Amino acid sequence: MEERLQENLSKSTKESGFGLALLQNSNSKQAQYEAAKTSIDGNQTKVSCDEIPTFRNMIDTVVEQAYDTKNAIELKKQRSSFVCVKGSSQDAVDKANQALLIFDDPYMKALSKPAQDREVSNREGQENGSGISIDVAMSSAKTSGETKPTFLISQIVPGSPGEKAGLKLGDTIEHVNGKAIGDYSIAQLEAFLTGQPGDSLRFKVKRGSQSLDKDLALEPFTPPRVIDRKLESNFAYLQLRNFQGDDLVVKMQEALGRHSKSPGLVLDLRNNPGGSFDSAVKIAQMFMDEGTIVETKIRQPSQPENPIFANRIYEVTKEREVISGTEFSSKPREVPDLLRGRPLVILVNEYSASSSEVLTGALKGRDNVVVMGTKTFGKGAGQMNTIPSEDGTGMHYTQMRFFDRFNFSPGDGGKNRYGIAPDLEIPRQTYTAKVPDAQLRNAIEVLKLLRK
Question: Which of 381, 364, 380 is nearest to 372 (CA)?
Fold first, then answer.
């Protein structure tokens, strides 16, 4: 599944506090780690990295707050062996990243100021790239009968460069920048579609009998927080592309309000890499009368030899929001149950991660809720993003694990990825004009059955 072109070329949502990342080979990591300690140009002034505030503050943060205390202890022992270029903040960031390899944690990273600025921009819901997804179908040429791939546009994000250029669902892409699309590798196509602001693309597309040229100017864009529309039988469709943006919870309430009379809803979390944990907890309340939402175990600032963890259980009653565990708090419920017993189908896939898994885990198994699609990514951990130094550099580190009400975690934030299994496994199928989204088609049929 991970080799499917559609997901490889999909939206340019960037990694965030609850986002996706690739696992790296641990052997190569260890080699990089050892080589990094003293690797430096002989013509530059060498100092212990701990003398540079950027490095020192980053490592202090990780040692005192990272969930993995075993490797935090090891980092604490090894930190003095790293050598940096005197006065170079960038070299300090690079060496901090190399020091963090000891964790074998793909989500642990030191961020330069530009990277930290992008992190903040991502949290505000801004995206880069073309905003289109491409699907591949095999078709036979009429004359030779030869089978060859056809590249179809299967999704266009509202407000994206792809939409502004006038591309349409079902358009067949034949050329990119004057070259036949089949001549590009998947990596090259991905680079085009998730390019940088200022890049430009020229597509030649076929739409019915027409051949059209479409120019795309890649620029940052902010898609709607919630994409919603009516489906057949007055069912409602709501898509969350991520859990970013301070106004996400409000926008979700508004979207549910627009569909308050719908007899059933589809919540689409496919390809949603996550975002704000708090937003996921609030949105879960919109689909619950009462019950446990999620449980967490969070490292508190402490020395790794004697770590302190806080356990929290997030629950909701008909009137109140409750957090119990290490500490207790209770306040009037801010978000009401907007589902009100109506049937709900949640669509997920192998790229639904983090906050998507928090929300899915909170709702799976409840009355009139069916999870469909394929198993989720399997992260099970959450990150904190901080700016520990005055130079604006940032730190992204794993601080917590989360569990559903049955004490199941979809992963450990590293190599152990279990994922949340759907109630009904429906593999994704290739886009066609007749059935552009087979999983959604099946979700509608399930809602019809749940209504009876």
Answer: 364
